């Protein structure tokens, strides 16, 4: 999204994380945590969506590239933007998505592509990933230290996902964040603005918090 909004040319390479491609050697050399998204810009390799956004914002902002994080606006707008961007981005997308495969009682009407066979397959992916990472570690993989952290992360993730109470607490946090977003959208509508944080006086201009919100909504769809 950031690449498109900034009008940058790019080539996409899809990594099949449902089949463990992220743990193949070629990808671990790019990102030892075995996670997408990652961008490669010349010599620079940047993983992690937040780091990617900050990188693109630093390197590609100006006349021909839109600015996605406010810096010149009033302190109030900057603070509000950063607040919403942070609270939305910090919601654990992995727990929300995979947790819903385990606790179907929280799910109302799942849409494509998360139909039953996909959910069944995705449920086994975390377990398979853990086994794969442990094998790589035992074999003394060069990214060992990072893989160890990733194993710890996945073990915690799996525990949260399987624990109905922990999952329900995550959903309560999502609820609180969405209430805050809704309130802000109502306030903005009263002032004739469409997005959570909008460039003042500019009907179409909007910032990254709106993208984060769009992504979050996709998880629920
Ligand atoms: N903090 C990272 C999280 C990235 C992440 O969890 N990516 C998931 C897909 S949405 C992934 O690559 N999972 C594969 C795995 O962990 O094995 C970001 O925001 O980019």
From TrEMBL:
InterPro entries: Glutathione_S-Trfase_N, Thioredoxin-like_sf. It comes from the Eukaryota. One of its GO terms (cellular component) is mitochondrial outer membrane. GO terms for biological process: mitochondrial fission; mitochondrial fusion; protein targeting to mitochondrion. Belongs to the GST superfamily. This is Uncharacterized protein. It comes from Rhodnius prolixus (Triatomid bug). The lineage of its organism: Eukaryota, Metazoa, Ecdysozoa, Arthropoda, Hexapoda.
């Amino acid at each position: 999204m950031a690449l498109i909004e900034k009008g940058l040319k790019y080539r996409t390479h899809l990594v099949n994380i449902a089949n463990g491609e992220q743990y193949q050697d070629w990808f671990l050399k790019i990102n030892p945590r075995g996670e997408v998204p990652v961008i490669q810009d010349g010599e620079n390799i940047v993983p992690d969506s937040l780091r990617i956004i900050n990188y693109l914002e630093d390197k590609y902002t100006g006349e021909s590239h839109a600015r996605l994080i406010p810096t010149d606006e009033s302190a109030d707008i900057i603070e509000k933007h950063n607040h919403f961007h942070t609270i939305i981005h910090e919601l654990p997308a992995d727990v929300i998505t995979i947790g819903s495969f385990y606790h179907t009682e929280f799910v109302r009407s799942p849409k494509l592509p998360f139909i039953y066979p996909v959910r069944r397959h995705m449920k086994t992916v975390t377990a398979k990933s853990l086994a794969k990472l442990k094998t790589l570690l035992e074999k003394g993989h060069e990214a060992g230290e990072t893989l160890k952290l990733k194993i710890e992360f996945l073990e915690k993730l799996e525990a949260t996902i399987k624990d109905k109470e922990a999952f329900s607490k995550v959903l309560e946090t999502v609820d609180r964040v969405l209430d805050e977003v809704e309130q802000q959208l109502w306030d903005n509508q009263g002032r004739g603005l469409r997005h959570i944080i909008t460039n003042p006086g500019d009907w179409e201009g909007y910032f990254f918090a709106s993208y984060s919100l769009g992504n979050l909504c996709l998880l629920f769809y």
